[in-house]
Amino acid sequence: MSDGGTPQPASDVAGRAAGAGDEAAAGAADEAAVLGDGETGSTDDVPGDALTEAQLEALLFVAERPLARRELGVITGASAEVIDARLGDLQVALATRGLRVVMDGERVALATAPEAGRLIGRYVGRDPARLSPATLETLAIVAYRQPATKSAIERIRGVDADYAIRSLVHRRLVVELGRSGAPGRPILYGTGMEFLERFGLTSLDDLPVVEAAVAERLTIPEADAADVADAADGADAAPVADAAGAGDTGLPAEASPDPATALPARPR
């Protein structure tokens, strides 16, 4: 399957070699700088709670990276309640237009609408990046189970997932969320802003609901995963994608084999 021919902004393409950890550290440094400046800077030109939907849209449009809600509060002088209200208004206003508000936890960004992906792809001329069925299945497990360890992913799939995880991390579709408290402190994986943008989602709440049998396999406790995997092997059970139905990983239809599928990119 394909994750589409999503056009990426030039800044993202240039920084593709940077690791997810470096990107997160840079973003945290930028956020700290903004918060520091906001605490000591002049408030003469900030709208405060009079912040308008248009002002918030313009700020998100020119931002070179996703902005945290508290950053938006510092920059605009608006309260958390006003920021949330304006973001909700902006989501509704953009629902039928060419941009979307994408939220990943506390981070917020603008992305182009999925249905504009083919047109943007023609303009940018980027070759489509494809995901193999195995990698796409691994991504589906991470998306629905997160945070997930490598061992949990492998137990659910019944095969080694090292290459698939490394490939997804390289594409920034999967990010490291931290370390588990289990022995050996394995890495916890989850999805980030890039995943939402590529699959045309505004938040993880937009993920389709999977069948009960698939959901049960995806949410088994870490300690029970090995037993479930052994039982599945004994019964010649199909992988998660097949259990969902004919290669259906549960991910949105945007993740289709069509290399020109609309998958958004942040505007600049």
Structure notes:
With 268 residues, this protein is mainly alpha-helical. The protein has two domains: 10-122, Arc Repressor Mutant, subunit A (Orthogonal Bundle), CATH 1.10.10; 133-245, Orthogonal Bundle (Arc Repressor Mutant, subunit A), CATH 1.10.10.10. Helices cover 48% and strands 9% of the residues. It is built from 13 helices and five strands. It has helices at residues 10-14, 20-40, 53-62, 69-76, 80-94, 117-124, 133-145, 150-157, 162-170, 193-198, 212-218, 222-234, 240-245; strands at residues 67-68, 99-104, 107-112, 174-179, 187-191. Strands 1-3-2 form a three-stranded antiparallel β-sheet. Strands 4-5 form a two-stranded antiparallel ribbon. Strand 2 (99-104) and strand 3 (107-112) form a beta hairpin. 36% of the residues are buried. The model is unreliable at 1-24, 224-247 and 253-268 (pLDDT under 50).
